[in-house]
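Hey, I was hoping to borrow your eyes for a little while. For a while now I've been wondering how a particular protein folds. The fold is given in discrete form, as structure tokens running alongside the sequence. Could you read through the record and tell me how the tokens relate to the sequence? Take your time with it, there's no hurry, and the full record follows here:
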Amino acid sequence: MSSLGQDLRYAMRTLAKSPGFAAAAVAILALGIGANAAIFALVDRVMLRPLPVARPGELVLLRSPGPRQGNTWDDGDEAASFSYPMYRDLAERATVFSGLIGEFPFTASVAARAETETAAGELVTGNYFPVLGVRPASGRLFAPSDDRTPGGHPLAVLSHGYWKRRFGADPAVVGQTIRVNGQALTVVGVSGAGYEGIQAGRRADLFVPMAMKDLMTSNPSVEALNDPKSYWLQIVGRLRPGVSPGDAERALAPLYRTLLADLLPRITTWNDVRRKEFLNRRLELQPGASGRRVLRDGYGRPLLSLMAMVAIVLLIACSNLAGLLAARGTARQREYGIRLAIGASRGRILRQSFVECAVLAGVGCGLGLLAGSWILHGLLSAFPPDADLRQLSAAIDPRAFVFCSALAFFAAVLFGVGPAFRAARLDPARTLQGQGRGAASSGSEDLRLRNGLVTAQVALTLVLLVAAGLFSVSLSRLADVPLGLRPERVIGFSVAPPLIGYSNEQTVAFARQLTEDLRSLPGVASATTVDIATLTGNDSGGSVTVEGREPVPDASHARRNRIGPDYFATLGIPLLAGRAISLSDDASSPKVAVINESFAKKFFPGRNPIGGRFAFGSGIVKPDIEVVGIAGDSKGAEVAEKPTPYAYLSYLQSPKLVHLTFYVRSSGDPARLAGALREAVRRREPQLPVDDLKTLTAQIEESLVTNRVMTILSVAFALLAALLAAVGVYGVLSFSVAQRRGEIGVRMALGADPSAVRRLVFSDVGRFLALGAAIGLPAAYGLARAIESILFGVKAADPPVFAGAAAVLAAVAALAGWMPARRAGRVDPLEALRSE
């Protein structure tokens, strides 16, 4: 231990004598490790981290892909939605589970202590907490007896985080009454610290028994608890000890087929092929240790792509440092020779080199953790406040610290092993002579090593430049997509009157009155109401039955929205034929709809759809919705969506409204209306929270934030890689010029002009580029194929992107080689020959 301490002190003194080298090495390492730590922290939270529950490895997620008939609600994975009767049958009859739980998210308006705010609620079955093994931090959690009588268990459990944020961790809240969506609920407990639901990025604030569903939700897509054709419940199971997911799937297959067969008589409109497909649906069990996969499925590919890019940056940084250490090792050969000559063992020299690398790696790791925290915080801050990723912690936790430490050790070994072994192999006699075969072979060996490292840097940098180019082109094409509407000077906000106890009739009346209030505000050109907000990723739809046409299975789906008068004028969507929705299209009038061009082409081909009738649903349905107008195609849920059949119904004819979004077109800057809009709502209903108050332009920008962040990060990583590669090229060319100074002097003495010498140096640049391109282009194509699915309007093999990346790399390499080439062209032949 004493000798190791001596090595450590010697390494610190040695590095202190070369502050420039030490600072450069630590800075390069800190950037590489920090970027990796930040992205790993996100990947860990979204894809890897197990739930803070008992034995998470026993949990499985239930899915059943395939055809279904009825209403379906899902949060991104339709196959994971089940009916409550199906859950009940599986929970009672499946023997492979030690417990089966169900959950459903809902928006909660929480009134407590004279304040009302919107929170994230979870409807959970009574066995939810016992099956997961979550313990209370205060009070008690639900038991199966708390979930038996519909509407008969007005109870709530607060999550630990919400308890601290909303109630200041006051233990007296247990036993108190709060109002949730107009219903008085008694708080019976607080869940344990760290547990906030079974889905990363969807932080639950409070939990309510499933039996209270009808009093907590007013979602028209989520019907009664006893409807077997209403799919809305997510199911998680805990396998019995010793039962594998594969064994459980095989054991469940006969039971699940029986349950489907029992449901089949309720489906009367399908042909034999469709009915057989329904009976052949499989019940899949996916690993559930990390919770539900919605956030993982949405962000998994972008995060893994970023992880690959930051790993490449770290490799470039390590190869750059290996080159710096090789040059430093050459400069210290005399020192090593003296130490060997006076009795130091080769093992001691080897260990000393590793200790120096470990010191650099340790300091780089510490600064990398700090840089990673900044990067992670900045990355999450780029997303909107209501985005799923913003619900994740921005702290570098112990798991990220362990990962960062492992990276530092990897980096120390990777960039330190070569120089360390070369230092230990030195011949002290020849080294002290400063000449001869040993010195020459050592210099040529260092040059070959550094040439190889620079070639690798060039190849890896080309990969990152191609990725950055693809993401940049994708974002550019997304930004240029025709939206079919005019977002300028439009501002919107959302409210949910049913969450504070409004009936549907009261909600409709409130929407009409508030719309009139908004139209009367100074600076407002028009105002309208809509059920589903535009370009928020949300949509609703179903199968369509057209009067006089046979339905086509799997090809009759369309989206729908409920709108108010002036919707098309306010959002700037052109009305091509017929009329728009009007105030007279209320509950006492025949049902009407305005359809878009895609709907007309698909469901009314070859004829004028005005006056035609259709209905949402299949089977025995009456087409009772009359088409009164045709609007142009416009983007509904996402900017990147393809043209989709869309029907606009009147919200005045809706049987059940929940969330309302109001849009206002202003005659000036719409942001200036924000205060007036809030005041208009407050005058009508002081207890009603106003959510998502933002301009439509800002909403569109937020919908593209993932693409924008991916582009910014990929460009930043590519520029960092290019900078590191430039340093590598500069270093190896400078070293080469110094090594070949005598040769250059002879060439110039024999008549070579400076331009010829510069071309000689640039020939090395060309060799680096040629070899790097030969390696990097296939690798870049491989990465491009891997990320192609998350790009828009650009293919993996995009010639302009590859050509542009190669041109940028050539320019960077040329700039890096200019100074060494210029220095070589100014060599004085007499001085060069005299030094030899």
User: Anything to note?
Assistant: Residues 497-688 form one domain. The chain has 24 helices and 23 strands.
